[in-house]
Amino acid sequence: MNGIKLFNDLMEYADGKGASDVHLVPGRTAMLRIDGELTAAGQEDAAEWQDADLTEVTEQILSGDQLEEYRTKGALVCSYSFSKALRLRVSVYRQQGRDAMSVRLHPAGVPMPEKLLLPEEITELVKNGRGLLLVTGGRGSGVTTTVASLAAQIAATQSKVIVSVEDTTEYILPQGRGLVVQREIGADCASREEALAMALQQDADVILLDGIGNERETGLLFAAVRRGQFVILAEKEDSVTAALLHLVQCGGSTSGSQILLESLAQGLAGAMAQKLLRRQDEAGRVAAYEVLVADAGVRSLIAENRIQQLDTSAGAEKERGRVQMDDAIYNLYMKSCITSGTAIAGAKDPEDMRRKVRLF
What we know:
Oligomer: single chain
Strand content: 25-35%
């Protein structure tokens, strides 16, 4: 019975090193992702993980129903409370007929917006609490943490009913002044569509939604917005424009596309995309934020199905709450938070960024 002890020791070690992810495959030592870079675990006597160890951990972490589903489907994602200070998102899967897993580590405490240096434009939209706020970012960009932070801010400062619909519950949100309800798909509800439909009937002031996938879900989302509920939608696209286009695509049929575009134009409060970059001034990573606050010009472009043009007019719109990702990255470089190489590698237009950093 060695596997679970090895796992517990490894999670404590990884947390102490500030790792975001741990990968376990039979026949290999554990691999950790620290500040975006993959590295082998450096524990004393670190050994290759054996099949029996991984099988033991899988059977200890998963419930009976989850284990049955995993054995049937060959993959499963679940949340796991490791300790009072640490929660895990565990992805177990079969590869070459053997158990393996990847683990995302989340500190149990939720950081507040000031700690994440979230843009003031976005926190102001959250204070207003109306319409649709879109938060997006690619893999490992910290979107889950950002949404949890915004929810914690609402809970701490406003008497609101917050209903969160999540693929996996990675943070336990504080109750604060109001009431927080967290529903995990699969564990607490059959589907995102079902949970979203129920949220419309639950006297929710705020709905947190972990992604959108089809026409029915999109319709329910905008129904909530029209009813005056504040919806924070987390997506996985790497830019605001891509996330907006994805939302329109999920809306479905061409015949209803104009209605959807008008609903999006009228209901959008703002959007933010984020990217984590390795710091040079201290350990860890820092976030660059692309920001869009919906004004008359933005609403017009969306309603006329010219969403891609939102990328071409940022210069004139900065005073109205539009910051492009490359401008945000360049600002971090000018503050000496990141190196020129990091700025160039993270930029949407690397050549333009290369020209800029050569000037300073």
